[in-house]
Write a structure and sequence with these properties.
By secondary structure, the protein is an alpha/beta fold. It contains 6 helices and 7 strands, in the order βββααβαααβββα. 45% of the residues lie in helices and 13% in strands. It is flat.
């Protein structure tokens, strides 16, 4: 197949043998997906969002303006159009490389992996949160997709918790729920009951880990 940037790609279809799951998983992780920090893991590890969109946005806009001034159908028009396609390709490849790198690392190091289930379409359509561009840039859906299939390939256990589980609202120490933390502006979780104080995303990732553990126990009970 030929891409708009002029490069050719070959797709190869192959059949994988059945993968046996790890008999005794030894490591587990819960993952909270966000904007400020792309991923927050329940062991305290955080992975930054590299904001690939911002890196290429100015160059793409400049090239789009340049293209609009070209005479449609001219040699210079098609030359500029190809240069624009190359920029889009670089943006996509940069995002793809980063996503593959972090999902490989996670699936290599953890036997049970649990993530939240995000309604990406609803989040993008919600214009009030002004996060649409950041959500698309972070490629949330692609991250969970890669974690799922790589876990399967490596014989790991992958779980997506219930969409409506309020991971950010529950104290990971005493299980008290506070609806105050529906507000994304609240970045630190301060529990009124046990006085626990944690980073909001880290607190959520620990809750996600415990929910993933429950799903694992339930499926093998």
């Amino acid at each position: 197949s030929k891409e708009p940037n002029g490069k050719y790609y070959v797709s190869v279809l192959y059949e994988m043998p059945d993968i046996k799951l790890i008999a005794r998983p030894r490591t587990i992780v819960g993952i909270d997906i966000g904007i400020k920090k792309l991923l927050t893991l329940s062991d305290g590890t955080t992975i930054d969002n590299i904001h690939t969109q911002e890196k290429y946005q100015k160059r793409i806009k400049r090239k789009q303006r340049e293209l609009s001034r070209k005479i449609k159908g001219s040699t210079n028009y098609y030359k500029c159009k190809k240069e624009l396609a190359i920029l889009y390709s670089k943006l996509a490849n940069s995002r793809k490389y980063y996503t593959h790198k972090i999902t490989k690392n996670i699936t290599d190091n953890y036997d049970i992996i649990a993530t939240e289930t995000l309604s990406i379409k609803r989040m993008i359509m919600n214009k009030q949160n002004n996060l649409s561009k950041s959500i698309l840039d972070a490629a949330f859906q692609e991250i969970t997709r890669q974690l799922e299939y790589k876990s399967k390939e490596k014989g790991k256990y992958f779980y997506k918790i219930n969409t409506y589980y309020p991971s950010s609202q529950i104290c990971s120490v005493c299980n008290n729920q506070d609806n105050k933390y529906k507000d994304l502006g609240e970045r630190t979780y301060n529990c009124k009951c046990c006085k626990n104080e944690l980073d909001r995303d880290f607190n959520a990732s620990v809750n996600i880990m415990f929910e993933g553990l429950k799903l694992y126990i339930k499926s093998y009970a």
